[in-house]
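Severity: low
Component: inverse-folding endpoint
Summary: output formatting inconsistent between runs
Steps to reproduce: submit the following structure tokens with default settings.
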């Protein structure tokens, strides 16, 4: 059974930091591309950051220079370090695992963790 479990969300003041974690099980973590997405109330889910199985990262323009995605293949975990948080970063943050080759395309989502940036 595949599980993606996010943790680390919470309430933080503007300018503060949070570190999200997504612990996975049931997949060969090292071959999966991993990503963080977020969905604010009343808005569509959007990409925040991704990291490929080879470690190549990509960020939404709105978080470049403030957020850092990383992965630990030994712990089957992906992280999102969020600094200089803004109220507009408030959303439910979701972890995603994706894999594709010539024969298969598959993906999984976590249940989400709430991040609220407010004074």
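Observed output (run 2 of 3):
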């Amino acid at each position: 059974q595949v599980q993606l479990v996010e943790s680390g969300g919470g309430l933080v003041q503007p300018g503060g930091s949070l570190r999200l974690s997504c612990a996975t099980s049931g997949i060969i973590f090292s071959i999966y591309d991993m990503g963080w997405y977020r969905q604010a109330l009343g808005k569509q889910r959007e990409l925040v950051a991704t990291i490929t199985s080879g470690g190549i990262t990509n960020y939404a323009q709105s978080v470049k220079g403030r957020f850092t995605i990383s992965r630990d293949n030994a712990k089957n975990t992906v992280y999102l370090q969020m600094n200089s948080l803004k109220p507009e970063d408030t959303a439910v943050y979701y972890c995603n695992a994706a894999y594709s080759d010539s024969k298969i395309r598959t993906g999984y989502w976590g249940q989400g963790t709430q991040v609220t940036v407010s004074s």
